[in-house]
Amino acid sequence: MSSSHREVVLRHIETVGYMQPALHRQTHAPAPDLIAPDLWKAYTRIVHDVGGEPDVPMAWEEKQEEQWELNTFATAECLAWRGAWTAEERRRKQNADVGQTQYLGLPYYGRWLLTCARILVDKQFCTLTELVNKIEEVKNRHV
Fold this sequence. Notes:
It is built from seven helices and no strands. The two termini are 22 Å apart. By secondary structure, the chain is an all-alpha fold.
């Protein structure tokens, strides 16, 4: 592994570690009858189900989508038209199957883009190596 690649990996690990929610006390797998109701609620909470949870006020703003967001939407729709996935598979992978760190840390269309990549690899439309190489090729074209 080259030193520049190692630095990128270490930066990534540091960033993900920074975004991870803190676990303030050590837990072990307790018997079901020993799990407190508030802990059970936390364990079974679905990441994207945030309705009714306390949060800071947020100003609603009309936003024009950026070009990468429009391209991501078009890519996702093309994958669906070609039968790579259903809308429900996409929603499940981008909302329920990602952890809280990615759900809260990625922009909306960032989760769509991650899901496109996961579907392509998971369903063996391409290998992870092929996908990484293509991303690198495209990046090099626009540097």
